[in-house]
Amino acid sequence: MFRHLFLSLSLASVCLLSTGCNNEKHFINDSDYRTRVENDFAEKKSILKNGNLFSVFSNEMTTQEKEALQFLYAYMPISDIADNSGEYFLNNVRLSFNIRDASSWGKNIPDDIFRHFVLPIRINNENLDNSREYIQNELWPRVKNLSMLDAVLEANHWCHEKASYTPSDIRTSSPLATIKTAYGRCGEESTLLVATLRAIGIPARQVYTPRWAHTDDNHAWVEAWVDGKWYFLGACEPEPVLNLGWFNSPASRGMLMHTKVFGAYSGKEETMLQTANYTEINIIENYADKASVTVTVKDENGNTVENANVEFKIYNYAELFTVYKQKSNAQGQVSLSAGLGDMVVFASHNDKFGIRKISFGKEKAVDITLGHNVNEAYTENLNIIPPAENAKIPAVSEEQRIENDIRLHQEDSIRNAYIGTFPDKDEIEQFARANKLEYESVEPFITKSRGNYKDIMTFLGNASKNEMSKRAIELLQTITDKDLRDTPCKVLEDHLYNTQQEAKAEYVLCPRVENELLTPYRSFLKKEIPQELQKQFTENPQLLVAWCSDSITVRNDLNKGSVPTSPIGTWKSRIVDSLSREIFFVAAARSLNIEAWKDPVTGNVYYMNNGKEQQVNFDVIEKSETAEGTLKAIYKAIPRLDNPKYYTHFTISKYEDGSFKLLNYPEDTTWDSLLKNGEKLEEGYYMLVTGSRVADGGVMSNVTFFTIEGGKETKIEFVMRDNTEEIRIIGNFNSELKYTDVKTKSETSILSTTGRGYFVVGILGTGQEPTNHALKDIEIKKEELEKWGRKMILLFPDEKSYNKFSPADFPNLPSNIVYGIDTNNAIRNEISQNMKLSNGGNLPIFIIGDTFNRVVFQIDGYTIGTGEQLVKTINGL
Question: Residue 147 and residue 530: Cα distance in Å, rounded?
Fold first, then answer.
């Protein structure tokens, strides 16, 4: 009897420790999917054997917690595993389960929707933080008694209290860094909103168009799952209802809309890409009409080609940007659904390639022939037409609009009150005097640091006490504005106090290598790299190249679409993507006071050895020099364009491994500065893309392929195709219409303000991303618009909108601008009716007219290059 009791107790103990024989609930109820996760988790664990990266699984946890944690570890990029503790992920799992139990909507969310759109912390390529806990503590009391739909709207209002739109660099700040800064670009705003919704247990995903077809740029927003259906909303831009944002119209002209779903996901949507980390799905049908095209790749004999590289490209920023890439199947085919416009398809196989335009909605099946050889000189003209606008706008009552506007004003006040706590001139002057620092030297860093000012001031203050203020300022000069906003003092001090005083700032002291989050790797690597190895690497940096090649395993498939692994995480895991290995090499070299860098144009990695520049090639350990040739481009100017600009009118890409890789020259690069007198390029095969965008968003493009040979000069023709259509009258506008001048507070007419002749009138949407873009574009053309001298009247829909406008955000606008209020929307209505703008036109609206009531130029909504287009038209008048 006692033996029987002992066996029963033993079996019960075993069951409690297992996931298969107890009565605890499963997190993954689909047994087949659970088995898949378990297998993928086991495989990941077998790969990452270094660094004790899975120790969290020895913690006590429930079956649900263990399965959820296994799901995260099975599919999270290796950078997340290497750079974050297991306890961090376990805590977030528990926060997710707690909010599911606490919310009224939690029990109604299907398992797969919760698994993929609530549980994951990672949204795209942002830096991870503790935002889920912070958001729950602050926001949950406001939404816990609301309906699911109202909770989504309220969450967006909360985000608007925290942040507004401002352009920034491509590194994506974490949600808490965006809150600390009080602004962010669309990718950061949408990351914040998705994190916010997931924190309160509402499924959410970031949606983005890889590139617009009708204008240069891209955009990101959010979809939220409410009571069984996905709805969209503009992040940090609250509207009274869902499925409404300033981007309804441009989205209806989109070609593709993507979202990255954490893990292996099998939903109703079209799957674009399946990686080890995420499933990319196409949701264009939520926003625009679509059609499918099947491309068949053939050789010159008409035979289908299997396993060819096929890329679908959208013209954007003067580049043929790849938005979808796939290998052709056994029948030589690749299919894609997209909006009803044009793309360019590029196909390659064994140094043969073909290129052609395809039109979705007009063509269902097309052939592309690999009829060109790599290294063959070739040029082709392409006329590219984007989809037409077909926006669907939900109804909003006047009462809803008024209530929402009141709330927006209140939220602006809350955010501005927080911004008001940032140091002003007097506080910065006081700080500088107290620390024996020059005001002019430190003011830019403190001002740009925004909510991170305490860390930057502490860093500068401590450096002054240690008589290293000059060196500290040199360090701050090497990092980006975003780094100033989200880098802790301890990280900066790690680099300042672990670098030789005489080492060069740019290539040794600088902690930044590419677009990674700054981390305190210098003291760590100095401690962890054995002294004998440090001595060898310092004497011969090529040995560090060899060590990185031998000791670090590259698995790009395990780190798709994520932030790079930090140098510390790379040292621990020894398995990373190729970019992380490059960053590690430069970081390790700089930690040993070796000059090293990653070229921002080509992406190549270099180091200095005995005063000589050496290029790093991890696949070829013996040092070798890459031969260079010279490219000259002969440009015959077209009307109103004397000096084409990089990213606006042209780009250059280099052929590598079957695809073309963009050369990332600075934004102020022009034909004159780059190609007129010759530019050194590595030998290889290249593509020059030029384009003239016309008023309807279409593009007249030219593509030229050419070869650069080492030690030789290559001359090509730089072709800018001209829109031969002369400037013409496109509509009418009553120049005697009146508006309220904000200075005099009195009504006055357009005519009395401008006098006889041409003028610009704009209707602005304060704080909206399209308006901010337009004003930034106009700032760039300040000199030319001032030289023109005619009045530019910028109007606000009402006084509230004007009061929200901050001229300090746009300090370089032309001096010939006059501000006013469009009384009763009279001017906007006149423009929208006469120009036949759908839905009254999307803000901002700009026209060029004259006092004979003729309109020669008009744009509205989200348009990149507004200043460029205004100046081009003005120069042609």
Answer: 59
389-411 pLDDT, tens digit each: 899 899 999 999 999 999 999 99
Mean predicted confidence (pLDDT) in 536-565: 94
Domain boundary among 269, 284, 299: 284
Q: What CATH number is attached to the domain comprising 854?
A: 3.40.30.10
Q: Tell whether 312 is covered by a domain.
A: no
**Predicted local confidence at residue 311, as pLDDT:** 98
- Total length of the chain: 877
Eight-state DSSP code of residue 521: H
Q: Which amino acid is at 372?
A: H
Distance from C-alpha of 408 to C-alpha of 240, rounded to nearest angstrom: 11
**Residue 51 φ/ψ region, left for φ over 0, alpha for ψ in the -120 to 50 degree band, beta for the rest:** left
pTM: 0.88
Q: How far is CA 73 from the centre of its chain?
A: 25
Any idea what the CATH number is for the domain that residue 139 is in? 3.10.620
Q: Which residue type, as a one-letter code, is found at position 862? A: Y
Contact between 582 and 598 (Cβ < 8 Å): yes
Task: Quick: pLDDT tens for 6-49.
Answer: 333 333 333 333 444 456 799 999 999 999 999 999 999 999 98
Domain presence at residue 390: no
User: Tokens for 421?
Assistant: 């706590």
**Tokens describing residue 130:** 């503790």
> Which one of 249, 284, 319 terminates a domain?
284
Show the domain range for 756.
Answer: 731-876
Can you tell me the mean pLDDT for 449-455?
A: 98
3-class secondary structure, 26: coil
220: in domain:
yes
What would the 3-class secondary structure string for 682-703 be?
A: ECEEEEEEEEEECCCCCEEEEE
**Alpha-helical segments (H) within 84-201:** 86-102, 111-117, 131-143, 148-162, 175-181, 186-199
Selection from 395, 105, 390, 392 nearest residue 241 by Cα: 395
Number of domains in the chain: 2
Q: Calculate ∠ Cα 62-67-70, nearest 5°.
A: 125
* Angle subtended at Cα 397 by Cα 140 and Cα 801, rounded to the nearest 5 degrees: 75
**Displacement of CA 828 from its chain's centroid (Å):** 32
C-alpha distances in angstroms, 362 versus 311, 340, 341, 357, 385? 19, 8, 9, 12, 12
**Cα(598)–Cα(607) distance, rounded to whole angstroms?**
9
Residue 299 domain flag: no
645: DSSP letter? B
Write out the DSSP string of 35-79.
HHHHHHHHHHHHH--STTTTGGGGS---HHHHHHHHHHHHHS-HH
Task: For residue 369, give the 3-state DSSP assignment.
Answer: strand
* Distance (Å, whole) CA 540 – CA 547: 12
User: Measuring CA to CA, which residue among 71, 123, 119, 124 is closest to residue 98?
Assistant: 119
Map tokens 């008001």 to a residue. 420
